[in-house]
Amino acid sequence: MKNWIMNLFGRGSPGSMSCRQVGAVLQDYLDGQIDSERAQRIEEHLEECRRCGMEAETYERIKATLAAQRTELPAESVERLRDFGKRLAAGDDPSAP
Amino acid sequence: MNDTSFERYVMPEIEVLLRVANSLTRNYAEAEDLVQDTLLRAYRGIDGFDGRHPRAWLLTILRNTHINRNRRRRPELLRDPDVANDRVVSAASPDRADSGIDNEIDSEIVDALGTLSEQFRQVVELIDIDGLSYNEAAEVLDVPVGTVMSRLHRARSRIRDRLARVGFDPRRSL
After folding, report:
1. What is the 3-state secondary structure (H, E, C) of B38-99?
2. Quick one: closest CA in A to B13, which residue?
3. Is A95 inside a domain boundary?
């Protein structure tokens, strides 16, 4: 109970972050948009704070599920576009007079 | 005309362009047409391109081409809010949701994505599904990077809130 309260208000070890501070940058952290020094402090908080750890795991699950929705592109579309690009690169502008 | 530059800067980005075009149009046939127009414009503009950030340059061309095509071909979409709303509703069950859903949490997350407004859904699709960076998504949507981040975070928060509302605890399957 004591650790939970200290985490909430950021009164743990020197330089530790509060739940509120971590919550404000959690998605940036999960997207790799945080500098390494601050990322380290966030990781320490997530290891100690069950509530914020759960929050991070939830967002990681959402991101993983969304990433899994990425589908294969239709191969024939890609092939047609590559052929079109090759013709352009060869100087064959199809709309040129 | 610098044909080597076209091969070097443009050809490697065709798949990314098609993926993003599909997120914008939600239709692969239309997406292919859009990318073809984009390639043509890139070919004509390659001499003015400085060689830096080719993907961002191409995404800007793609976005402008998309806007011009909509203006030219479907002006009713830009004027009629009912038509625009229908488009959002029809986006609630995207084709990509048909594959790879192997449990209820995944289904709930994908369903939640479909219920987001187009503004929020697009940014999630571009970044979390298509794999664009914040900056690249900002190019496509023609908004500041801060706006992209704000929309993305709010969109994910809404998905998380929906999971909580229906009683799912994603930790159980992690």
Report:
1. HHHHHHHHHHHCCCCCHHHHHHHHHHHHHHHHHHHHCHHHHHCHHHHHHHHHHCCCCHHHHC
2. A82
3. no
